[in-house]
């Protein structure tokens, strides 16, 4: 039996969230450490490198994780999963070729990245390595806690190495080798744990190409839209000063840390919704609405707290040198509620119903809006302009997804209209 729908419980969800405490503490410790040890200019290099590395990761992943997770939740036998696993690995290998070429060119074009010896190599290779992460496989086979524990061990190893080897601004060339070593250890452990669950890692080229074709629509949405957003720091590094890059990058990292709170829920709940949507759609919609309400309230609270406390909290945590990032952060935090809405609509309503074409169209349009706005705005107003471009992209993406869900007839499901029980009964089910 597929463990995804057999073992789901609120206790498991709470356990995963408890484990994720390490993930949330990690940036709170590491970002101030980078800022104080490396300074504003050194931290700008780290931000630009991580942005490019994440971009390469998204390109090579190509939406495979979403497709693989959706395929596996409907399997019942190990032989079916073996074929999916091999197709996934081989498809990633194929895309490493363009990923390597594009990454190398991008690294050489950035003076910040190429100006530090060795950084370009580890940025590019690190992005390729991250694309082989097995988090999607563990969660879709009902083992999210295994994925979380591996990540926790990796984060603790990364912190230990960084604190041991990064002591002064001149150590900037050691940051990415340390991060690569930590990610390599996580990857080796993950593949060792599942080594008996597959007969090999190489599939036929035809099967891999078929998977690439099937994943193309998902990538156009999640890849293209997120790709441009993740690459914002890298783009800004080509147009503005290191001070502007550090201000924008710090704000983006903090907002991304806030959005990452949704990750444990999606690991547990997204496969559950994908399974239920064809069997008990009302239940699937209820789970999605609960998720949306909780995270939207959290996002609004995050906006309010940031507006009230950022003026003294940012200099306190990161040092007075980062005081110029406060106005940028106060604008960037408005991304939180917009991103919550778009992620819930995409992950919990559209992808389970295989409406990838709607997601693709919306993602491409939002990416074009972001690019069209980012270059002139960032060129004239630096970090502030890049934040405004990000808000325009998120707003346009949300508008298109709302219109698309309405045209697809999903609005009633989103709001729970005509699902066979009263508002009083619907409210009581939140207490289940």
Automatic annotation (TrEMBL):
InterPro entries cross-referenced by the UniProt entry: Poly_Biosynth_Transport, Polysacc_synth
Keywords for the protein's UniProt record, in alphabetical order: Cell membrane, Membrane, Transmembrane, Transmembrane helix
Main location: membrane
UniProt key word Nucleotidyltransferase: no
Keyword NAD: no
Family: Belongs to the polysaccharide synthase family.
Name the UniProt record assigns to this protein: Oligosaccharide flippase family protein
Species assigned in the record: Paraburkholderia ferrariae
Lineage: Bacteria, Pseudomonadati, Pseudomonadota, Betaproteobacteria, Burkholderiales
